[in-house]
Amino acid sequence: MSETNLPWDEDALQRLEKIPAFVRNMAKSKIEKAAKEAGEERVTAQFMEANRAKLMG
Question: What is the CATH number of the domain that holds 8?
């Protein structure tokens, strides 16, 4: 699964910490996969906000 690991901005990591611990790893993987598919080189809070509906669906 390491092929989907992307660097995270500090703001994005802070948002990730607000996700309940029991789903955090799954959410992190889903966010990284979506960012990679969108051509992002890193996960940002802006990306998370802009894609919130898609990521939570």
Answer: 1.10.8.550
